Amino acid sequence: MVGRGSVNQEIYDSLLLLQHRGQDSTGIATAERSGVVHMAKAKGQVREAFRTRDMRSLLGDIGLGHVRYATKGTASSEEEAQPFYVNAPYGIVLVHNGNLTNTRELTGELFHKDRRHLNTSSDTELLVNVLANELQSSISGLELDPEQVFQAVTRVHERVEGSYATIALIAGYGLLAFRDPFGIRPLILGTRKHEDGHYEWVVTSESLVLENGEFEVVRDVDPGEAVFIDLEGRLHTKQCAPETQLAPCSFEYVYLARPDSVMNGISVYEARLRMGDRLADTIAKYTPEGTIDVVMPIPDSSRPAAMQVARKLGIEYREGFYKNRYIGRTFIMPGQAVRKKSVRQKLNAMSSEFKGKNVLLIDDSIVRGTTSKEIIQMARDAGAKSVTFASAAPPVRYPHVYGINMPSRHELVAHGRTIPEIAEELGADFIVYQEVEDLKAAIIEGSDLDDLDMSCFDGRYVTGTVSDEYLAWVEGSQES
């Protein structure tokens, strides 16, 4: 954020709105116009991470923040919390949403060629060092101008592979944001006019941050584009990648994003409603007539789809699970044992809604199957006569390597199993999945998009740089 006064509180408030995107750790960095950088980061959620003394120390009218869940490195390590800082050139602080897929090559290059030291296994530390090295190479005089910044980003695109929506603070100069050439991870620009006539700017993952802060949505940052906002609030933009293709991550719309956000011109909520419409047709096709008495969502992200399934099938919609909102999202908790333990802490089945009924449960997706299996058993324990389980997403059969934590094929319940075998594994009477083409059509309907990254469903990695050898390496190196 680039403001006209202290930005620490607004960054804090924005991180609260984005807490659903990660609960492992969080961090805020700010800078004064003199170039002095202040930073605070800690494990845990936003409300528990920052104290009054931390907020008082975060001085300056430019800053950035991040909430993290681990896709690389160690989830519990405070050292791997973002932002990351390097002191030259000028002082750069960087946050990053995504996952780099050529970390092995970059690590070697940074050590042997660029003579840069890495202190963690985080790909964010890799990215800030690549940016710093290329920015150092671009500098031709005492002052830094936007064109030199854009030259550096161009070379970052040449060196880095994978997904990355990046925001960097360059001390004494301004805020830089750039998006990978495929636009896999979201990045959106907003502005508002200050009472002194200058413009304030925000770049963020989701539009709800802009709406909450009364910023006007300007547009999504284009794939491959860089945006630089100087300390006077002047906006500079440039396309820095020679070839681009917008193929955003489909899992943002299925699960990760909040429903009140708009990404790439598509309402997440409306996309989930359309998923429900199409899923209803598939349920009607594959489920025997008379085997469903009631439709229930697994709170919260599946609720729009479940409502549409019930409406289209003409079956009663009921809420059978009560959600404890003080437990984190089970999907992004590390380790199967932790996920399994958290499910019954998070959800409670109300027996009055289940007893003697043939229940259709709707969830947004089935990934590892740990949560789904527990929920199905909870429904049976609550008295359900039969349990049909439907997923608003297709079977997750392949690793997701672009920033969603599902790296190992052996962890995916759908990998190597038929749908009847999945039903048996999870303990359901029937399992119904969304068709791959139906999911794609539900998301892009009415938009200018013609492609999505759906690699975890169809095995097609849009960057074209993900090999079987890389997938095997990720599986071997990822912590359980």
Task: Name a few traits of the molecule.
single chain; 480 residues; alpha+beta; 6-stranded antiparallel beta sheet; 5-stranded parallel beta sheet; 17 helices; 21 strands
Folded structure, characterized:
α4 crosses α5, α9 crosses α10 (303-313) and α9 (268-286) runs antiparallel to α15 (436-444). The radius of gyration is 23 Å and the shape is globular. Helices cover 34% and strands 22% of the residues. The chain is of the alpha+beta class and 480 residues long. It has helices at 8-17, 46-49, 52-57, 103-112, 123-138, 146-159, 207-212, 250-256, 268-286, 303-313, 336-346, 351-354, 370-381, 419-426, 436-444, 455-458, 468-477; strands spanning 25-31, 37-43, 62-68, 84-86, 92-100, 162-170, 174-179, 188-193, 199-204, 216-220, 225-230, 235-239, 262-263, 266-267, 294-297, 316-317, 321-323, 347-349, 358-363, 386-391, 430-433. A hairpin with a 5-residue loop joins β1 (25-31) and β2. It has 17 helices and 21 strands. It starts with 7 loop residues before the first helix and ends with a helix. Strands 4-5-6-7-11-12 form a six-stranded antiparallel β-sheet. It has a five-stranded parallel β-sheet with strand order 16-15-19-20-21, sandwiched between helices.
